[in-house]
Design goal:
By secondary structure, the protein is α+β, with helices and mostly antiparallel strands. The protein contains eleven helices and 21 strands.
Length: 598
């Protein structure tokens, strides 16, 4: 109880004057005042002791405690100088009466009145005090260092779940025997073996509805300032690096679970909170500014990457307080470093396949330079140019009955890239399991072209109508590694008139709506056109939904997302695609996803 409150209590219950001979009542009043003073001292000492205990236990830092004490003293001193403005209940009774010089006035507050006032004060103050304390505790993390193990405070858990319905509809002009399933042919050891398992050709005629599920759980652990380790578990399709879907309908068998990410990451941040570089290694997230045309959203990279940044205008409020969405918040777009008004360089080295002979391991070496700029308020322009050099990926022809170059057969492909036989069935090649009726066809197939890909990406996020944004993105890729003369020399006559460079790809896309779907009624829409010639990019790593994955395809994507609850949203996409150069292959796909995030 403050001095101001006590004064108000005394002044609020003024009673009629008493005469000097009423000493007994005056003595009683003095005793009550002494009791109130003792109560106030007890309250003060209790509060001070509690604050000291909070400081000793680490629940409240010393600076905050001293600030609270100083503020309380200053407020008490100010209130002590202000006389209580309490009406005199006896003023009307005494009006017009002669004043007795020997009389005095005092306040008598019955116990039941004081108790009632105490309860009112507690009721009125408790809510506000509790709210303020909770706010300070959340902001300053009171109690966490002392109440929880230190390692637990350094752990962050996140995850997501997706339920998908995907309906693929094939054109009536498609042929059922136009597209070989080279991945199954390689795995089965030849076309005849694949044919015996009904796996020789891709399905291009039978419409297919599939229900799928994806679940991922990520754990990030802070090791020390700037250094963390991460692990992500995921449902998996063990044959595909670009899909972590689990197709429903496996006769009740348990789902497979895999380690999708396992990495260490170091971020160097200076005293001004500028992040100058990031180094990461292991199985990491996509480090490149890119779109789903080049790299599938589900693709993880194995190896090492580093991003180095040069900051400008960091002292300006528009840069300092800019809050970007997550780098991959728009499905299929990877925004890369989220540091506006900066230049950046990303370098990476990623082993793709380890081979017994270390000099011929398959690798991806990449480099990217770019700029990230807030051109107007929160409207943001990002440009990036990259070069991806794939080493030891192309096929090499075996001699008869030789195993030497079997390793050049890719472990995973989708469809579209030009393939050539590594082992030719010439009727006497024991490496082939096919009969002589399939002479001239291969048992193992590999990529005809080298892949040296130049990739340019531009993204402009127009935010003048925030919270609604309009993001325009353009992605262009060119494979500089196709060498028709070298292919003809090593595989004479096999490709014929098809031995020509078809090495360009582009995508233009417009996203309108919220940059990130978090809450009920959040929305966004997508419209995109994509054109990918057969050897423009590596078909193994591109989006696996557009044209059912791979290259040699063109077409449209329309779609949108809508928030149905907090961290829960629906996303629908419609794809209409067709082959560019190959035999007729028209595919329409409708994909409906229910996404949840924790």
């Amino acid at each position: 109880m403050t001095k101001k409150t006590l004064a108000a209590l005394l002044a609020s219950s003024l009673v009629t004057p008493i005469m000097a001979d009423e000493k007994e009542d005056l003595l009683k009043l003095k005793q009550e005042i002494a009791g109130e003073r003792e109560e106030l001292l007890n309250l003060k000492n209790t509060a001070v002791n509690l604050i000291d205990i909070f400081v000793q236990q680490g629940l409240l830092n010393k600076e905050k405690a001293e600030s609270l004490m100083k503020a309380a003293k200053a407020k008490a001193a100010l209130e002590a100088k202000q006389p209580p403005a309490v009406p005199d209940s006896t003023a009307s009774q005494d009006a017009g009466k002669p004043k007795d010089a020997k009389s005095i006035r005092f306040a008598y507050v019955p116990e039941f009145v004081k108790e009632e006032i105490r309860q009112d004060v507690i009721a009125n103050m408790t809510g506000k005090v509790v709210s303020e304390v909770k706010a300070d505790a959340k902001k300053e993390q009171w109690g966490i260092p002392a109440a929880l193990p230190e390692w637990l405070n350094n752990i962050k858990i996140s995850g997501d779940m997706r339920l998908r319905a995907q309906d693929d509809i094939f054109g009536s002009a498609n042929s059922s025997s136009s597209y070989l399933d080279y991945l199954n042919i390689n795995q089965d050891g030849g076309q005849l073996a694949a044919q015996s398992r009904n796996q020789q050709y891709l399905n291009t005629t039978e419409d297919r509805l599939r229900l799928r599920e994806r679940f991922r759980l990520a754990i990030d652990a802070k090791i020390t300032d700037g250094l963390k380790a991460g692990l992500r578990l995921s449902t998996t399709n063990q044959y595909s690096p670009v899909s972590s879907n689990q197709t429903l309908g496996n006769t009740g068998q348990s789902f497979q679970l895999a380690i999708d990410r396992a990495f260490a990451q170091y971020d160097f941040v200076d005293s001004q909170h500028n992040d100058w570089f990031t180094l990461s290694g292991g199985r990491i997230a996509n480090p490149w500014v890119s779109t789903e045309m080049v790299y599938s959203p589900d693709l993880s990279f194995e190896g090492f990457a580093g991003t180095f940044r040069w900051h400008t205008n960091q002292e300006q409020d528009r840069v300092k307080y800019y809050q970007p969405a997550q780098a991959n918040s728009r499905f299929g777009l990877q925004m890369g470093p989220q540091t506006p008004d900066s230049l950046f360089v990303t370098l990476g080295a990623f082993p793709i396949q380890e081979v017994n002979f270390s000099t011929v391991d398959k690798w991806l070496f990449g480099g990217q330079i770019g700029a990230d700029w807030l051109v107007h308020n929160d409207s943001r322009l990002k440009v990036a140019a990259a070069y991806y050099d794939y080493e030891n990926l192309r096929a090499r022809s075996n001699a008869s009955d030789s195993f030497t170059y079997d390793w050049t057969a890719p472990q995973f492909i989708q469809k579209g890239n030009t393939l050539v036989p590594i082992n030719v069935n010439n009727g006497s090649n024991s490496r082939c399991t096919d009969s002589q009726s399939l002479q001239g066809q291969g048992c193992l197939f590999g990529l005809a072209s080298d892949f040296k890909i130049f990739n340019a990406t531009v993204m402009y996020d127009f935010a003048d109508f925030a919270p609604t944004h309009a993001l325009v993105s353009f992605d262009y890729a060119k494979n500089l590694g196709y060498d028709a003369a070298r292919i003809e020399r090593e595989f004479p006559g096999y490709l014929g008139s098809n031995n020509r460079a078809r090495t360009d790809a582009f995508q233009i896309r417009l996203d309108v709506g919220k940059p990130e779907i978090k809450y009920f009624k959040d929305w966004s829409t997508i419209i995109a056109y994509r054109y990918i010639q057969r050897d423009a990019i590596l078909d193994a790593f591109t989006d696996n939904v557009f044209h059912q994955g791979g290259t040699d395809a063109k077409g449209w994507m329309l779609g949108g997302s809508y928030g149905v609850a907090k961290n829960t949203w629906l996303m629908f996409r419609w794809f209409s695609t067709e082959a560019i150069d190959g035999p007729p292959l028209d595919i329409d796909s409708a994909v409906l996803d229910l996404n949840m995030r924790i």
